[in-house]
Amino acid sequence: MYILENLEPKKVFMFFEEISRIPRGSGNEKEASDYLVKFAKDRNLEVIQDNVYNVIIKKPGTKGYENSPPVILQGHIDIVCEKNQDTVHDFEKDPIKLIIDGDFIKADGTTLGADNGNAIAIAMGILDSDDIPHPPIEALFTTEEETGLGGAKVLDASLLSAKRLINLDVGPEGQFYAGCAGGMRTKISISIEFEKPKEGYKAFDLKIRDLKGGHSGALIHMELGNSNKLLGRALDFISSKLSLSLSYVSGGAKENAIPREADAVISVKENEIEHLKNLVKEFDAILKSEFRTSDPDVNLILNDTKMPEKVFSQKTTEAVLKAYLLIPSGMIARSLDIEGLTETSTNMGVVITDDDEVVFSNATRSSVSTRKKLIARQMEALASLLGASIEIGSEYPAWEFNADSYIRDIAVKTYEDMFGKKAVITATHGGLECGIFAEKMPGVDIIALGPTAYGAHTPQERLSISSFARTWEFVKKLLENLKD
Hints:
The chain has 484 residues and is of the alpha+beta class. It has helices at 10-20, 30-42, 114-128, 150-154, 227-239, 273-290, 314-326, 369-386, 406-419, 434-440, 465-481; strands spanning 46-49, 55-59, 71-76, 98-101, 104-107, 137-142, 164-167, 175-180, 182-191, 194-195, 201-209, 214-215, 244-251, 257-258, 262-269, 299-304, 311-312, 330-334, 342-353, 357-366, 389-396, 424-428, 445-448, 453-454, 462-464. The longest helix is centred in the middle third of the chain and has 18 residues, at 273-290.
């Protein structure tokens, strides 16, 4: 049984549901990649699978389009694996449980994977068709996009001949993207000095809960609460007013998702417990006031817990609290060229405590490469002051605006002819693989588009059914109009 079987276009929604049944978190794409290879072989299409499970499927142009310039349809296989804390789901083996809610497809307590399952389904629909006019197609499905564009970085671009590329990884419907930010990841690691808990102390769990979270590229300008930063503020607020001992911190799951939840284990003197409870109530009220518009459900929660066998030294505690306060997170600069576009940002996406260090993992994005380099230098300087180590990696280039784009001109005219309204030409602060393709394939003409969806990288992710259907019709018509 298919949950989406009554939706139109039937085959495209079927492909979306089939890919949703295959676990495909970043780094775990082999099964989904093999599924695409089998799909191609079953239809006698040329297919290439590389050693990181990128897949290229080639289909000749239809009658009258045999000699038209080929077109790349591109999307990524992997998804961000986020779930609510009370959701039982193993992203390594469980299928996404789909739900239809009015005009939306959602998942049951997890990310949906419309980012970028909609691209896979649309490309498969074109590849499967025998009645849709189109130029020669090179469908490109990449891996590890969500963790630093890994598949695109190692792709052998000589396997592709097309100089026109349609990226299907960004919406909403009616917006055509002509540029994106570049990015990098930084990890600041603080070595832990442990000591035995002091006599007369009581331990507590301190939790940030019920933030909205979201995509750190698309939503960073919305001033949403970042659970890691808010937990750091709460810890600093408490430690400035009583003797606090810290033994554990964590928060977030992905560097490129604004974190929704964060945890700490603290301990205080038994004679200061009531003071602690009052401080937590006070700071909870502060958060509810500050975030009454963006995150009105935010909660700071204090629960009793068992005293740990060891706690951080005062030196380590101070370094961790300073890191929380000083590592930048949020929008840093707006674009002066494109109204409403974030130019530079950093997201403190993940904080973990492992055996011997606390690690702060951050995703930085900027459409200006020198600004990205500045953030790297600032992170290095901060790590030095904290006595911490730093790793900088997963860098990817920005996709710079091309004033002369044939495929964009055809897309704009096609959209206006179909829907009777003007399309919006813009850029995204999110990271797309387009910058890498532009470097690897000099002269490639790129446009990025997609259906309307909300809540990417969160369990609130949902895809508009009607928009997905219209986007399918638009892509078909765009390919038909690329006959020259």
